[in-house]
User: What shape does this take?
Amino acid sequence: GAVVSQHPSRVICKSGTSVKIECRSLDFQATTMFWYRQFPKQSLMLMATSNEGSKATYEQGVEKDKFLINHASLTLSTLTVTSAHPEDSSFYICSAQPQGAEQYFGPGTRLTVT
Amino acid sequence: GENVEQHPSTLSVQEGDSAVIKCTYSDSASNYFPWYKQELGKRPQLIIDIRSNVGEKKDQRIAVTLNKTAKHFSLHITETQPEDSAVYFCAASSTGRRALTFGSGTRLQVQP
Assistant: This one.
């Protein structure tokens, strides 16, 4: 099956700093990747759709200047949380669709902002 | 946009019993309905999915039914086992909006 990786798996940062999370498709090319956020005991919420070679599409309520997405190649999308604050602490998960409708999820990144 | 509602939020069953989780969706354009099992701190794991041209699909102890007219779909787990304990999410997407819209989740606990 298709494999999606994420790095890092866990990160702790201080308030006001920026954190970059990488999402890679290891055995397929992905023109589109999706970034979700999951707060404790809640569901996954789509943050943005990452499009290779063009600007990301953000969901309503997600600040595009705070959550910077770059999809510079067909196998890599990055999410940068800028000026992170404790309320940004969450589980961030990416996904991609190699073909068809099924999505393959990365293992997630646990971000803790102190 | 799409809105997916899921019930119940928690479900406790005895080992060997059946469990049913129900979801409704709002967008008639949705045509793909996956179910995921998620364990704490892990990624969602696809357990079964159904497309809108099919009314029912079964895989061993797991089945999904879809009623397009009523816009609802359900997950059925038979002969539950303690290892089935987890949080289950339904989701929906369409050809036009490929991103998934998730339900709120159901915490299933199977008592041995």
In short: The mean pLDDT of chain B is 96. Chain B touches chain A at residues 31-32, 34, 41-44, 46, 49, 51, 89, 93, 95, 98-105 (CB under 8 Å). The radius of gyration of chain B is 13 Å.
